[in-house]
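Batch manifest, entry 17 of 40.
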Amino acid sequence: MQAEVGRNSLAVAAMVLGVTGLITSIVFIGGLLGVIGLILGVVALKTTKWTGVGRGMAITGVVTSLIAIVVSILVAVFVAWYANNTQKCYQPDSFRQYTQCVHQQLSGH
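Output type: structure tokens
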């Protein structure tokens, strides 16, 4: 008996969303794409049990989606931390004053 030759569209979509989410995770969009990719990847993994097609793509989609979600969360935490520590610098007269203020705030002076 031969394995069915075809394509698992959910696995392809999960992989594309996972990779795209990973690339865009630094600008927060990747987290949302990662969640969608993760859901599609899990569903695709379940369908590969019956079809035998697309398991590698589904696993790639799940892994890259998880990484995209984690990176997006870490970026959000960093941005919140940075904004909290530099909030006194938000109305400078020049970019030079802003950079000096940020340096002072982050170095603790």
